[in-house]
Specification:
- This protein folds into 2 domains: about 170 residues, 3-Layer(aba) Sandwich (NADH Oxidase); about 130 residues, no CATH class.
- It contains 16 helices and 6 strands.
- The strands form 2 sheets. It has a 4-stranded antiparallel beta sheet, with helices on both faces.
- β4 and β5 form a beta hairpin.
- α1 packs antiparallel against α4, α14 runs parallel beside α16 and α15 packs antiparallel against α16.
- It binds cobalamin and iron/sulfur cluster (2 copies).
Length: about 350
């Protein structure tokens, strides 16, 4: 049996070598979020994301992920940064996390490498389950318990050095390793995110009402966006970074992973095209243009019709007569959701 401290040191080394900026170990029975999560669901803050409400007690206990109950289970929590480099290329219509390669794939691959090396070192009955947004668990909660950062008022996990442009991954393992503890919440009296949120989605207790969140509306909401929430969508076509952009902890952070942050990653011309696409261009996209622009990107979660809907709303928020004929064409789109958004955008020109 290898010494648990040695295994932990090995995990830290492997994580750093794989490009993760933070790593820590959380106990499997991390409990603190259960009550908040219950409140989130009871208030319907999950909107149409019914998958989030499925088996809520499972989401609060990762032990079942390894198949059979096991006492010696802990969670390796990892964070990769996608913080922009100083010049921050991109037009701001696509959320930063989706401007490069799909993080599910990038982080998943890195985790598989860590698991393979761990398995060689530990041997025996070693079992592991990798999660990158792919399992019903509270990733921020676990990351906070592992000391990767604190959960800010904007709901995001923040590290004092790397800020909150972090994507999380976990490896649940049947090992008893020395666990880490939480770090102090350093939001203090700051309320910048709460005040900057265009739709009032951030509640006083730091919980985000998804139904009002532009990220939810542009990515997860599959129907018409309620009229009262169209102005707050501004020029955003996929996701929203406002509550992170105003956060003082995201000022002067080291540039993140070029592979994930995207546009200036030379080979990825597809990503550059996506990051710089304007709503005026997007409403003119055929399905094949959307397919090419989003291939290999996490932006693909919003389907073609949603890109059209969101871009039409962005144009309604900044009307330009030059887009009128393209919007009129879209107003005849076979999807009633797209057609309605385009008709609304045309009305904003009057
Ligand atoms: C559903 C979801 C969304 C929904 C709902 C967001 C929400 N606030 O819940 C929508 C579509 C709106 C969304 C948006 C975004 N998301 Co999202 N999302 C998720 C997902 C899949 C589940 C989150 C969830 O369970 N929500 C329910 C709430 C109640 O749970 P929770 O947010 O985890 O909060 C718990 C803890 O944080 C804790 N908690 C919160 N505050 C406090 C305070 C204290 C003191 C304590 C003790 C605990 C505590 O209690 C909560 C309940 O247990 C996770 C991946 C995952 N499986 O965890 C990614 C995830 C949270 N999203 C992520 C990202 C990047 C985003 C966006 C930035 C994307 C964008 N640019 O558009 C925005 C940010 C919006 C925001 N301000 O929260 C990252 C966050 C990384 C980070 N640094 O925090 C995650 C972790 C994905 C990943 N693998 O990296 N997302
Ligand atoms: S992502 Fe945008 S809309 Fe959602 S809470 Fe943050 S600022 Fe508000
Ligand atoms: S903007 Fe201020 S309150 Fe909001 S998460 Fe950042 S430090 Fe916390």
């Amino acid at each position: 049996m290898v010494d648990p401290s040695e295994i932990k040191a090995m995990i830290v080394r492997l994580a750093n070598e794989s490009g993760f900026v933070r790593v820590g170990i959380a106990p499997a029975d991390t409990p603190a979020g259960g009550e908040r999560f219950g409140r989130f669901l009871a208030l319907d803050y999950h909107g149409q994301m019914s998958w989030l409400a499925k088996e809520p007690q499972r989401r609060c206990d990762v032990r079942s992920l390894l198949g059979e109950p096991d006492d010696g289970v802990c969670v390796i929590c990892l964070a990769a940064s996608y913080a922009p480099s100083g010049d921050d290329a991109g037009a701001g219509h696509i959320a930063r996390y989706a401007r490069g390669r799909d993080y599910h794939r990038v982080l998943g691959k890195r985790c598989r490498k860590i698991v393979a090396e761990l398995s060689d070192a530990v041997g025996g009955n070693f079992r592991a389950r990798i999660c990158v947004d792919t399992a019903p668990i509270l990733e921020r909660e676990l990351a906070a318990a592992a000391g990767l950062g604190w959960i800010g008022r904007n709901g995001c996990l923040i590290d004092a050095k790397f800020g909150s442009y972090l994507l999380l991954a976990e490896i649940v393992v049947n090992l008893s390793l020395p666990v880490d503890g939480p770090v102090k919440n350093r939001c203090g009296s700051c309320r910048a995110c709460l005040e900057a949120c265009p739709s009032g989605a951030i509640q006083d207790d730091g919980m985000v009402d998804s139904r009002r969140c532009v990220s939810y509306l542009t990515i997860e909401h599959r129907q018409s966006i309620p009229e009262s929430l169209r102005r707050p969508c501004g020029q955003r076509v996929f996701g929203c970074d406002i509550c992170q952009e105003v956060c003082p902890y995201n000022r002067d952070v080291p540039a993140g992973d070029a592979e994930i942050r995207g546009p200036d990653f030379g080979e990825l011309s597809r990503a550059a095209a996506l990051a710089s696409a304007t709503p005026a261009e997007i409403i003119r996209w055929e399905w094949s243009d959307w397919d090419r622009a989003t291939r290999g990107s996490s932006a693909r979660r919003a389907k073609y019709e949603m890109f059209l809907r969101n871009a039409a709303i962005a144009l309604g928020n900044a009307p330009d007569p030059a887009d009128r004929s393209a919007l009129e064409r879209l107003a005849r789109h076979e999807s009633p959701i797209v057609a309605e958004a385009a008709t609304w955008a045309i009305k904003q020109m009057i």
